[in-house]
């Protein structure tokens, strides 16, 4: 395989990935769904059906944004809604990497993936503001991925540190996002529909940018304005099944047990009165970005195949499954082919290395491709649309059939680094990190496998 072919495949993979990210631009997504004409505010309820709308002449609008896309979403809303109609000052809470200065918006940087005191302080401020809403006002929530950690308001009886420790244990256990959020909802005063309960009966609408694979609104940022079907018992079962129940703080155990026994009120369920004045619009998702990636690959003259739109297994298992999917068909490929996937895999941390699920998947794919002797010319990218994969500066990894050779020439054993969850060190050495910087959005992950037949 020539260096030119490798270079072309890598360049195309990055281009396809970037177009997937661009499709999730939060500023444009909000602008597409919100219009103001005189005193009339109109909200699109379905981006695929222009007839579904909510409108009103609310005297004031409370603009509250939280998540990795909070700044760009708040910027769009404040560009559209006249300043005199905005109640107080709009607020945007985002992770530190995505903080930008905005006119007429109070921007707060907070911790992610572990919550911190800055986010807790901001959450308290939001609660105080919402206590003063009036009947003819609208609360406009702008919610994006990462909101679970960025808006922490621990339940009575547990500390922020207790919640941080529990979150850290869940993240390291290999729990998926729904499992993590189930626990978070039951350790919070805002998640799992409780923010809607606080606002009721004031009108509330949420624009939501999805970072979960099935666009379940109750999972995005732990569903603060959406009914919750999970229970305290579910949370206990998750912690038990992941073998971390005995490791979580005693205060958290006590709270969950009280909830299971009915001594603490459950999160609001679908038939609760608080949701009668609540509506939502899904303005962006992994599916939308994945479809744009497929379109981009076609425009680059690749034949396209969808491997999965709901990738959620362990990263290294998903990598091997993709190799095994390709292996039986590679001999019959007659044209450059792009095999794409989207979702959010998991990693069970057993080592002491540095990395994230996308880097781990990329390194695992290179190892599995060698193990199963893929003979085609290939390159594989796995990246997070938010630009940050785990506690690293990388969005993910971009490997090719020469990655392992580059590592071994540097006297590095790829398998040892993978087993130590040290994909970052491996891919940094092989010059296979994907570094985009913070993108200002977050719709989970994209995987792009490009194959050039021999």
Structure description:
This protein has 454 residues and is of the alpha/beta class. It folds into two domains: 3-20 and 287-452, 3-Layer(aba) Sandwich (glycerate kinase, domain 1), CATH 3.40.1480; 25-153 and 188-230 and 267-284, Rossmann fold (3-Layer(aba) Sandwich), CATH 3.40.50.10180. Helix content is 37%, strand content 20%. The protein has helices spanning 3-22, 26-31, 70-80, 117-130, 147-150, 160-173, 177-185, 194-199, 232-241, 250-260, 286-299, 315-326, 357-371, 403-409, 414-419, 423-429, and strands at 34-37, 40-44, 53-56, 61-66, 90-95, 105-110, 138-144, 203-209, 278-284, 303-311, 337-343, 377-384, 396-400, 433-434, 445-452. α13 packs across α16 (423-429). The longest helix is centred in the first third of the chain and has 20 residues, at 3-22. The mean pLDDT is 95.
Short key terms for the protein model shown above:
single chain; alpha/beta; Rossmann fold; 6-stranded parallel β-sheet; 16 helices; globular
Structural classification = alpha/beta
Give me the number of helical elements. Answer: 16
Say which CATH homologous superfamily of the largest domain is assigned.
Glycerate kinase, MOFRL-like N-terminal domain
Distance between the termini: 8 Å
Name of the CATH first level of the largest domain: Alpha Beta
Overall number of domains: 2
Strand content: 15-25%
Low-confidence stretches: none
Question: How many extended strands?
Answer: 15
Label the CATH architecture of the largest domain: 3-Layer(aba) Sandwich
- Anisotropy-based shape: globular
- Radius of gyration, in Å, reads 23 Å
């Amino acid at each position: 395989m020539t260096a030119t072919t490798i270079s072309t495949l890598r360049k195309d993979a990055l281009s396809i990935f970037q177009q997937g990210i661009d499709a999730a631009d939060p500023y444009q997504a909000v602008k597409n769904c919100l219009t103001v004409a005189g005193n009339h505010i109109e909200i699109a309820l379905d981006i695929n059906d222009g007839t579904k709308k909510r409108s009103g002449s609310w005297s004031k609008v409370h603009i509250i944004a939280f998540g990795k896309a909070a700044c760009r979403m708040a910027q769009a809303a404040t560009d559209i809604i006249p300043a005199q109609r905005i109640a107080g000052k709009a607020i945007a809470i985002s992770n530190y990497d995505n903080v930008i200065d905005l006119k007429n918006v109070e921007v707060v940087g907070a911790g992610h993936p572990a919550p911190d005191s800055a986010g807790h302080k901001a959450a308290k401020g939001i609660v105080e503001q919402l206590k003063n809403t009036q009947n003819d006002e609208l609360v406009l929530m702008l919610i994006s991925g990462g909101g679970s950690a960025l808006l922490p308001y621990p339940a009575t009886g547990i500390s922020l540190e207790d919640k941080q420790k529990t979150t850290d244990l869940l993240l390291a256990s290999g729990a998926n996002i729904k499992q993590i959020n189930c626990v978070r909802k039951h350790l919070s005063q805002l998640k799992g529909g409780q923010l809607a309960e606080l606002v009721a009966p004031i009108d509330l609408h949420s624009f939501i940018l999805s970072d979960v694979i099935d666009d379940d609104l109750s999972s995005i940022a732990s569903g603060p304005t959406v009914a919750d079907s999970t229970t305290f018992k579910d949370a206990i079962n998750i912690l038990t099944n992941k073998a971390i129940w005995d490791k979580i703080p005693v205060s958290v155990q006590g709270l969950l047990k009280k909830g299971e026994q009915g001594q603490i009120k459950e999160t609001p369920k679908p038939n609760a009165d608080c949701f009668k004045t609540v509506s939502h619009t899904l303005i962006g998702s992994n599916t939308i970005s994945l479809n744009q990636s497929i379109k981009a690959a076609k425009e680059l003259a690749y034949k396209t195949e969808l491997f999965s739109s709901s990738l959620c297994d362990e990263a290294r298992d998903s990598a091997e499954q993709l190799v095994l999917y390709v292996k039986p068909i590679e001999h019959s490929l007659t044209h450059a082919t792009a095999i794409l996937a989207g979702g959010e895999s998991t990693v069970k941390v057993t080592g002491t290395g540095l990395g994230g699920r996308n880097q781990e998947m990329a390194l695992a794919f290179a190892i599995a491709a060698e193990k199963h002797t893929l003979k085609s010319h290939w390159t594989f990218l796995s990246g997070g649309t938010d630009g940050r994969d785990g506690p690293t500066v990388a969005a993910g990894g971009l490997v090719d059939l020469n990655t392992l050779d580059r590592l071994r020439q540097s006297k590095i054993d790829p398998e040892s680094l993978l087993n130590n969850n040290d994909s970052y060190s491996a891919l940094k050495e092989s010059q296979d990190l994907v570094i985009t910087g913070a993108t200002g959005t977050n719709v989970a992950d994209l995987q792009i496998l490009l194959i050039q037949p021999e």
